[in-house]
Amino acid sequence: MARMSADERRESVIRAAIHEFARGGYYGTSTEVIAQRVGVSQPYLFRLFPGKKAIFLAAAGRCLESTRRMFAEAADGLHGEEARAAMGRAYIRLIAEEPEMLQMQLQMYVTVAAAEAAGDRELGELVRAGWLELWDAVRIPLGDARQATAFMGQGMLINTLSAMGFPSGHRIWDGFPGGVDKAAGSAGRCPA
């Protein structure tokens, strides 16, 4: 078996960090558990990343970029309602198939709030910058800020309901546009 390059190990660390931070949050996840998941020592982990904060920033950045790319690919060549429906379906599929992406998003928001309450704005700056890129990925095909606000607001509601585990067919999903309610309900099975 060939040895992994530092870039390949770094990639492994980011994937492991998304999984672990999604489960335990920033403050509840040790670098030791991330190193164990990847199969490296903590000293080696710190040769790849200068510290836990850098690992979290890389994981958060990857989560945001993956979501932004998914929106852009789903809406490619589409506009208005067609783009909204395609991005909505793609997002529901993402959080159903990769629940750690939803969990990581939620952990990012909590971590930013806690860090900023303690006077650390670095995490918030990265997450806000990534979120603005998500916003633009949605706003452009939808055509205006109002539509983007409605889409992102509905997405945040889907995040919340899914994280709380509302099952498919529950009346809470009845207010969503056709087709989204059943798919969102299935995503609701992912644990918070």
Please tell me about this protein's structure.
This protein is mostly helical. The protein has helices spanning 6-28, 31-38, 42-48, 52-75, 80-97, 99-117, 122-142, 145-164, 180-187. It is globular and about 50 Å long. 31% of the residues are buried.
The major pleated sheet works out as: none
- Overall helicity: over 70%
By helix and strand content, what is the structural category?
Answer: mainly alpha
User: Kindly, what is the distance between the CA atoms of the first and last residues, rounded to a whole number of angstroms?
Assistant: 37 Å
Global Rg: 18 Å
% residues in beta strands:
under 5%
Give start-end ranges of low-pLDDT stretches. 181-192
In N-to-C order, the SSE pattern is HHHHHHHHH
- DSSP E strands, number: 0
Q: What is the tally of helical segments?
A: 9
Overall, the morphology is globular
Mean pLDDT: 89
Task: Quickly describe the structure.
The chain is an all-alpha fold and 192 residues long.
Pick out its properties.
192 residues, mainly alpha, globular
Record the SSE blueprint.
Blueprint: H1 6-28, H2 31-38, H3 42-48, H4 52-75, H5 80-97, H6 99-117, H7 122-142, H8 145-164, H9 180-187
Helix pairs in contact: 1-2, 1-4, 1-6, 4-5, 4-6, 4-7, 5-6, 5-8, 5-9, 6-7, 7-8
